Structures are given as C-alpha cells and as structure tokens.
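Protocol step 6 of 9: fold each sequence in the batch and record its structure tokens directly after the sequence line. For illustration, a two-sequence batch is reproduced in full.

Sequence one:
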Amino acid sequence: MEKRSKDLLAKLEKKTMIRNRKQSITEMKRLTPLQYKEAHLLPLTILLEDVRSAQNVGAIFRTADAFRVEEIVLTGITPRPPHPLIHKTALGAEDAVPFRYAPTALEVIEEYKMKGYEVWCLEQTIHSTPLEECFMEERKILLVAGNEVHGVSEELVAQADRAVEIPQFGTKHSLNVSVSVGVALYALLSPLWGNLQK
C-alpha cells in the first residue's frame, strides 16, 4: 500500500511539473526579428518626444515588439539604438521593431497626418479622453509619448487629434512613460489581436 501511494504521489508530482514548466521558445511561437519585419503589423506607430532615459526607450521597444506595432519614431533628445542601455531593457527587440530618428516631432506628425493617421498623445489635459473610451477600430494611429518630467509638449498636444488619459486613482496621477505606453498599447490593440494570425 505504501509503495502504491509513493508511486501515485510521484506520478502526480511529474504531472504537476509538466503542467507548470515554462514553455520553450518554439512552443511560444516567437518570431525571429526577420519574421517580425515580414509579419502583419498592427496599424499603430509610436512617436517618442524627448524621452530622456535609454532604459525607458528600451522598455518601450520591448513592449512594442510584444504588441507588434509597425514602427517607433524617436525624436529630439531621445536616445536611439545602438545603445547599451536600450539593448539591456529591450532584450534585442530593437533588432525587430522598425524604428527611425527625426530631429523634430512636428515634422513626423505632419508626415503621418498626410498618410491618414490620427495623432493621439498620451497626456493629461482639460479635454483628455479617458483611455477606456478610445477605440482604434479601422483607424491608423500615431501614438505620442513625451518626456518623463514635462510630458508631451503643448505644441504637439495642439497638433494632436486627441489627448488620451489613463485614469488613475492614487496620489501621484502620473505613470512612468514606458508603463503608460504599455497600458495604452494593451487597451488599444487587444481588440485587434485576431489580426495577428494573418
């Protein structure tokens, strides 16, 4: 009886280990950087205006990779790859996600408006739309995130089609820029995940 109990316990432990083990890269169906560039990308580009921290930029690359955004545009003082601190937090996502640099964010906004994109900035204004009321639907979006201290510049907010605010209920009413981008991408892109099978 004792042997049978030990055998049963061993089988249960083995099943639990199998069920709880981490997936391999193959099982997760991860794309290579080349496959990412050839894959169906979601119609959202991120514009970073004067983001100071290379670690924040790297974290945004990593999040952009997870949600398969089409491009990141780095402007002003925003650090750009190749950069060791970007690489450290991006974990190589900067090799997959298309990106480019532009000296000023205004020229990028004009360019994307000409391409039919709506410009949405992550910023708290008196006319901000709460994130949960924002839906991409068939739109193409240029999502603007700003400097860690000053946020998106007033000049860019004035050019945006919409200011989007993440509702917050604590004392600070501010989030790290990379966290804000992650929250916004999840909320905006999750309804489009079915398109990633294409």
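Sequence two, same batch, same settings:
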Amino acid sequence: MSSIKKVKLGSQGLIVPTIGLGCMGMIKFNGVYEYGTTDEKEAINTIHRSFELGGNFLDTADIYGPFLNEQLISKAIKGNRDKYIIASKFGIVIDDNGKVTMTGVFNGKKEYVKESIERSLKNLGTDYLDLYYLHRLDPNIPVEETIEAMSELVKEGKVKYIGLSEVDSETIRKAHKVHPLTAVQSEYSIFVRQPEESGVFNTLKELGIGFVAYSPMGRGFLTGEFQKPEDLSENDIRRNFPEFQGEQFYKNLALVNELKKLADKKNITTAQLAIAWVISKGYVPIPGTKHVKYIEQNILRDDE
C-alpha cells in the first residue's frame, strides 16, 4: 500500500487519505440508469487498485442501487475489511426489497435509523461503519432526534463517526450540539461553490468539522471527455441534469476548455487539476470512477 498523504477529517479522530473514492457510479440506478457504462469486475479491480495506491477511503450509500453498491463493495473488501475506511449514508426511503417507494421521501426517525444501519451492515458484510451520514434531512423530524439515534449507534459500536450531507449552517449547529459531527458532505467543485457562498465552510471551520466534496469533477464534466450532449449514452442519468443539456452544456464546455489550457501548462489533466484544486482548499474530494486507468490518474501522491 502506498504512502499517500493522510489527513485528519474533522477533529474527532478520523484519519483518511487526501482523496477518497466515490463508488456511486459503479452500478446502475434501479437497474436502468447508469453513470457511464458499468462492469462489476472492472469496478472491483478499481477499488483494489485504489487501495494499492493508498486510497482506502470508500464512499457509498444504501440508495445506490439501491443496496447493490454496498454489496459490490462487500465483495471488493472481503478479507480486508479492517484495512478500509467505509462511509455510507441513509435517509432516503427504501423498502426491504430495494425499491424507492416515492422519490424524494426522507425518513429521519429513530426506527428508520436503526433499520437502515442494520441493512447497510448486512449489505457491506461488516459489523461496523467508519463514517455514517444522514444522506438528506427529513423536513418533518428535528435533526436533533435523528442525530440522537445516530449517537446511539456510536455507543453500540456499529458506527465510529457520524456526519451530514447537503445541509445548511443552522442544521449543522443543531446536530453538532447533540453529538460531535466528524464530516459534512456536499457537492463542491470549480463549477459548484455553494458551500463556500452559503457560509457552511465558515461554520465547519469554527466547529472543527471536516468537509468531503462529492462530484469534484463536476459530475464528470471537468474530465474534458464530453464535447456534446450526445457523448453521454442514452441511459446515462446525467442526461437529466441541466448542466448537460442544451445551451448550458456548451457554456460549461467553454469553461472546461479554458481549464484545459491551464492544465496543459502544468502537464496534467483537467481532472487532476479539478481534484488538486479541492485538496488545496483543505477538503477531501471523493471523485467517482470505475476504471483502473482513471483511479491511477486521479490519486495524487505526495511526490506529484
């Protein structure tokens, strides 16, 4: 395993590599939508190669699949669980058959917290998670109630650290008073700067909470691979995202082309530039890939 630089994520004791691996795109969504093409063998090889390079911080969620992503990771880490740092998320309602009953329905009740952790532990083939996030806030349940239930998981040894995803400063403060948060995860990239504009970063710094950036490559846009919307396969879920549609696509492409000029001067790819930019801010990016060649490009070692 490489000596990739490690950093503190927050102030509660969790140590992680400077870059994690977002695993969401390794499987199909509800058996239909993809994040590019998917191949289980290549995905597992990617996780193993990431580990060899020092990237042992894996990010998943019960909604990815649903459940299939956690099950894929279980296969990849079998026999080496204690050598990986596994983060998963819960809160988007899924039934026991792995069906999303209603899109956009969230559940932060104590009973659902307990139900969700047991499912994730079973799917991942482990008896604990290193980091457990509330994926989305339940607007009908005080966040304090959800965090109290998550705190119980820590006391039971089923979870080491807890966090939130896509929340504002007020919610972070309320939650942190109940149980110290280790991390907050939100979308953040050269393209998407909402966490800094909203004041969330200031709150995290004040409270000693770490930040994990998902989609640090602009959902793949910052790789420079896409020159027209049709470059995405018909089943690629990104075809539904505004930034990949019509005039907005070409506005974004123009920005990517400018970044490519800067990357070329440094003899790196635009993807490497995008990741390095997030790391330079003091945050932990979790770019998603399911190909060995890209994980080798994405992981920035101490000597690069």
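Proceed to step 7 once all outputs are recorded. Observation for sequence two: The domain at 6-219+279-298 is CATH 3.20.20.100 (TIM Barrel).
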